[in-house]
# Entry
Amino acid sequence: MTQVLDLPATATAVSFTARPLAADFARRVRAGGPDDFGRPGRHLISQGGEPVRDQLRRVGAGERLILCSYHAVPLPGIFAETGPVYISAEEPAPRVWRDELPPGYFNRTFALRAYNRADEIIESTLVEPDAAPEKIRAWLARPEVAYLHARFAGHGCYACRFDRA
# Structure
C-alpha cells in the first residue's frame, strides 16, 4: 500500500550513505567460508555488467566473481530474507558513498524499502535513479524509519543499504 507523505521541512537536509554489504561477510566467503545458507560460494568469470555488492559497482567482462547467498535482513525476523549476490573475488578498497548513488550501479528503476527498528518493511516503492536521492532523504527524515534497502527490480536481489549519514 502506498501512502502520501507529508514531509518535514528538513527532509532535504538529511544526509545519507550508500553502504556495501558487510565486509566481514565478504572476507569470510572469499576465504572459502560458508555464505549465509552455510554453503561455499560459486566462483565465476563475469560476462560484464554484474553488480558486485561489496564494491557497489558493475564489473567488466572477465573479472572473477563469487555468487553466494546473503541475509540482507537478519534472522529470525518475519521479514528476514536470504538471496543471491555477487561479490568480487578480489578484496575491495573500503568505500561509502555519501548523498549520492554509486556511479553506474543503478542503471534503471529499482525498488526501495524502508525498515523500522524491528527490521519490518514499513514502506516500499519503485524509483528511478535520478529521483532516488530525494526519496532516500525524505524517508530517512521520518523518525520511524531505521534504514533503507535497495533491490534490483528485475530479479528482486539485494543491492545495498542506505543509512543516515
In short: The chain has two helices and eleven strands. The chain has two domains: 11-19+96-164, 23-88.
